[in-house]
From TrEMBL, chains A, B:
Domain (MmgE/PrpD N-terminal): residue spans on this chain: 8-248
UniProt-recorded name of the protein: 2-methylcitrate dehydratase
SUPFAM superfamilies found in the cross-reference section: 2-methylcitrate dehydratase PrpD
Family annotation (PANTHER family): 2-METHYLCITRATE DEHYDRATASE, 2-METHYLCITRATE DEHYDRATASE-RELATED
Domain MmgE/PrpD C-terminal per the UniProt entry, residue ranges: 269-439
Family, similarity comment: Belongs to the PrpD family.
Species this protein is from: Pseudaquabacterium pictum
């Protein structure tokens, strides 16, 4: 076996067959697809998303085979891929792979869907190409390492390779062409965190750029265009320019055995990650004991020090964004509204019952939780009821992580909420989409969604 | 005056007026435009150029306001800018700014022309926008420094900002919007030298990508899209990620007084740079003394050590590429054909009179030339004629550099040769183009070239 891990990754990406993918991985790919689709709809109406979409429609053809989800228009694969990628990450409810700190859905599904629609691919093809995109992109993110992430937005950089891999599979690139596509993608890979300092719009541009540049790289490779052979670990390659702790072995880590796609987490609550374990524990407790919000007298969340540091200062949030860092508000929405989603934050973070619940919530440092962090995010809560009962609950893995993933019912519910959030689709339309997604593996051609 | 050099650069780029530009700089901008236009035509038929153009045409509209030069079709500004940028640098006869090691024309003129045609701008507008692109891009290249160039292709990275600046000026961005455009361009800036190791096609992709991403950044900024404020020197900006010797002062170096555009060199001979000083000296000698090739018995070129190291091994070149590293062949083409251009290399590098002349040429190390290098590239030759005369000539600055620039007659001649090289345009067509370019400053709208 070659020790050239770039060759191994290209070989894997070019030769993966639908039948190679274990059934649970395929089911998870469908789950991730639905979750992405709804996340993209939740980008509808957002200024940066609409801006990129408007630009691409202006520069592209008025019609074409590929759908733009937020406005249901159609154009060329490039235009649709860029527009949908811009929309995917705006609500920040799309998936995340913890190990690579990479959001695969936003950069894999948009180009894969756009090209699948353009070439008349089957649903199985779309799923296989998407698995290829996840497996390649996550490994490239792991390869680039933490030093890369300190300056570069991995979803933008590794995402370019992920997009090229997914599209390359659909275009039937052989291993040699796939390696050229990696080269052409990697030499366009970009995305700097500097925009965060002034909360600029670049995050949407990063996913859009990754999808467009990766798609371009794959089409060019199919046309004989060549790229660098050692784009990842060459002396003037990505790691040489943009990482100080890269590890080439990670490019081929467990290919064909380890399915990185199945390690990807769904986002459940629309709040700061530090609030999630306690929110999960409270939700569990209230369901198990059939407690309503007005039966709760006091909530003590047992947390790690990081949660106290980040969330402690937020006692009376004045904006939706602040509210997402308020432990009391998050738990109040979970208790009163049953869910701390985008809509609930927008509508109710200052609602009287939520504020009343918020003021019953406190945080205390818990030795077990603090010791386990950050390898494990344990959630523990103690509730005192109005009739004097003392109840407790714990959750060992946050909801949405692979060991505590969302059921299909929960995914459907989340998708409906995201679709409704900005009027991306009606409930009936989403019901059709949901059935289309669950039937994707059997679809002879990728359907037109939201027809 | 602010010490925020990014603000100063954005202010300059947004507010430069046609009337601010000294007449010699404007004339040089016209020179550079003609030189670029012909360089782009010389990319016609080249596989990587045709590949990128085919892809963009497939993804874009069938018609539009902006010309694609190599096939005279039209499309949207994005499609035309990307296609023309891909074509500009293929023949490697386009311009170069020595201090920043940056090829401005290839990334400035394609997006500037495409957008000028789309918005009905005047010739003066196109020239002013192009000057802005040169001034900004060269300074960003100087800012990024030598450490950047070791891994990154500055024409790809700084080129993205140059393209954004030129297009941003045409779209009438104010200084605040221009700074946002810089941010959106810089966060997409990319281009790695790794492709050189296997002579892959990435160079064409780098100029194409820079033009497209920069144009995108400017259009988005005009639509209110925001970018990083400190994209150059911020803690997670371009220099933090991609340079170890950046100097923020260079971003604003001499703005409005120093015209970096006028420092840009034209390429004259289509050969390795180390052959140019001797070729210039021989050409001077043969003209001054009215010597024909068959009157030359012996040529001794007095060179620096680097020339001997690089060119010495090439005694009997077997390919066009090798011939460009053969001092004897280059001087043979100059002596026999009068010019060592692309066409001459292709057709005559093995022609008997050229080979005969080649074998009369030798190199010797010269102390003065070697000491002056690399700050100055002095050319010295000694010729013995068949009738026994001893002649000598020297050139203190290579032809095409600012102190020994090309005359308009020489530029027209070079442009005609480049246009003819791959059949990009007829001589008559180019004569019209030449008149259009010399009249650009007076044109009320940018004409359709090669109509």
């Amino acid at each position: 076996m070659t020790t050239d891990t770039t060759a191994q990754l290209a070989q894997f990406a070019a030769s993966l067959k639908f039948s190679d993918i274990p059934a649970p991985v395929l089911r998870r790919a469908e789950d991730l697809y639905l979750d992405w689709f709804a996340s993209a709809l939740a980008g509808k109406g957002a200024r940066p998303v609409e801006s990129i979409t408007r630009f691409m429609r202006r520069m592209g053809p008025d019609s074409g085979p590929s759908q733009i989800l937020i406005d249901r228009s159609s154009s060329s694969p490039l235009v649709a891929a860029v527009a949908n990628a811009a929309a995917s990450h705006f609500a920040e409810q799309d998936d995340v792979h913890n190990g690579s700190v990479f959001h695969p859905a936003a950069v894999v599904f948009p180009p894969a869907l756009a090209v699948a629609q353009a070439i008349g691919a089957s649903g199985a093809d779309l799923l296989t190409a998407s698995v290829v995109g996840y497996e390649v992109g996550i490994r490239v993110g792991e390869f680039l390492g933490r030093s890369h992430y300190r300056i570069f937005h991995t979803t933008g950089t590794a995402g370019t390779i992920a997009a090229a891999a997914a599209v390359g599979w659909l275009l039937k690139l052989d291993a040699t062409q796939m390696r050229h596509a990696f080269g052409s993608a990697g030499t366009q890979a970009a995305g700097l965190w500097e925009f965060l300092r002034t909360a600029a719009d670049s995050k949407q541009l990063h996913t859009a750029h990754a999808a467009g540049a990766g798609l371009t790289a794959a089409y060019l490779a199919a046309d004989g265009f060549t790229g660098a052979q050692a784009i990842f670990d060459g002396k003037q390659g990505m790691a040489a320019g943009m990482s100080s702790d890269s590890d080439a072995a990670k490019l081929a880590d467990g290919l064909g055995q380890r399915w990185a796609l199945a390690e990807t987490s769904f986002k459940y609550h629309a709040s700061c990650r530090h609030t999630h374990p306690a929110a999960d524990a409270l939700q569990t407790l209230m369901r198990e004991h059939r407690i309503a919000a007005d039966q709760v007298a006091k909530v003590v969340t047992q947390v790690h020090q990081g949660a106290i540091d980040v969330l402690g200062p937020v006692v009376d949030p004045q904006t939706v964004h602040q509210a997402k860092f308020s432990m009391g508000t998050v738990l109040g929405l979970v208790a009163v509204k049953g869910f701390a989603g985008l809509t609930e934050f927008d509508a109710d973070y200052k609602a009287a019952p939520v504020v009343a619940f918020r003021d019953k919530v406190s945080m205390v440092l818990d030795a077990e939780v603090d010791t386990a962090y950050p390898a494990r995010w344990i959630g523990k809560v103690q509730v005192t009821t109005t009739d004097g009962r003392q109840l407790a609950a714990r959750v060992d893995e946050p909801k949405g992580d692979p060991g505590n993933t969302l059921s299909r019912a929960e995914l459907e519910d989340k998708a409906q909420r995201l679709a409704a959030y900005r009027g991306g689709a009606t409930a009936a339309e989403m019901q059709t989409v949901i059935q289309q997604v669950w039937g994707l593996a059997q679809a002879t051609t990728v359907p037109r969604f939201l027809a």
